[in-house]
Amino acid sequence: MLITAAEQAADWSGTAIVIAGIALVGAVVTVAVWQALATARARMTSTHEAELRALADEVRAAQARTATALEALRDELRAERGEER
Prior knowledge:
single chain, 85 residues, mainly alpha
């Protein structure tokens, strides 16, 4: 039973189609996973940025309170020393 060249070509073309299909499915799955991970990373980043903004607001408020307290202490020391502003 000799296999002719046409039969061999038909076998390879079917195999090539299967390989191309597997490669296409693999590429689609890879892109889908990549996008899902990118979306998750973006969500984590936005949450982290919101936390950092809140922390920065707290720091600004603390800095303002500290500056006010320092001004009050300076004024009190000047008053004790009898200095003018």
